[in-house]
Specification:
Blueprint lengths: L2 E8 L15 E3 L2 E3 L4 E4 L7 E6 L14 E4 L12 E5 L6 E5 L5 E5 L9 E7 L2 E6 L5 E3 L6 E3 L12
Antiparallel strand pairs: 1-5, 2-6, 3-4, 4-5, 6-7, 7-10, 8-9, 10-11, 12-13
Length: 163
């Protein structure tokens, strides 16, 4: 099980099952599939982030990388009651935040206090899938060719689907 198409400073993997938009500060996993292989969004708790292949027979992420994230909306800058914004944090007392920037970089960084817009993700549900939209750049986390990328949000684009 090797990392596939690493993206600077962030490890993403895709898997068979995951949950999104859960209770505040809850543990979640994000996964996706290409129809044949399952993948999990994973991290090293530091850097980098990349996509990881997971054999379909397991249906869950392997322990080669950490695949648990914390959905945390307890310390957001300017909380929006109409949206489902969370910081996607690595576990532990010094959790790091999944972050996106205008040029398309996706990585982990120490969480700001309060959590800034670059570190906030709107979890939008569309037809049984989740789309993760970054609050600051208003683009969505995608997995084209099993790389990580930020793309213009499109609910019809399966490269933006997470579960």
């Amino acid at each position: 099980m090797a990392a596939v198409a690493a993206v600077p400073l962030l490890v993403l993997g895709l898997a068979g099952s995951a949950s999104g938009a859960t209770a505040d500060n809850a543990a979640v996993s994000w996964s996706t599939t290409d129809g044949t292989h399952n993948f999990c969004l994973a991290h090293d708790s530091v850097e980098p982030v990349s996509l990881m292949y997971v054999p379909t027979m397991t249906g869950t992420c392997m322990a080669l990388k950490e695949t648990t994230w914390r959905d945390d909306n307890s310390n957001l800058k300017d909380p929006d009651p109409k949206a489902n914004f969370y910081a996607e944090k690595t576990p532990g007392p010094n959790g790091r935040c999944l972050t996106a920037f205008w040029q398309g970089q996706i990585y982990l960084e120490p969480c700001s206090n309060p959590v800034n817009y670059y570190e906030q993700w709107d979890e939008e549900s569309f037809g049984g899938h989740w789309i993760l939209k970054n609050r600051m750049i208003n683009r969505c986390l995608a997995h084209p060719g099993f790389n990580l990328a930020m793309k213009d949000c499109d609910a019809r684009d399966s490269e933006q689907y997470w579960s």
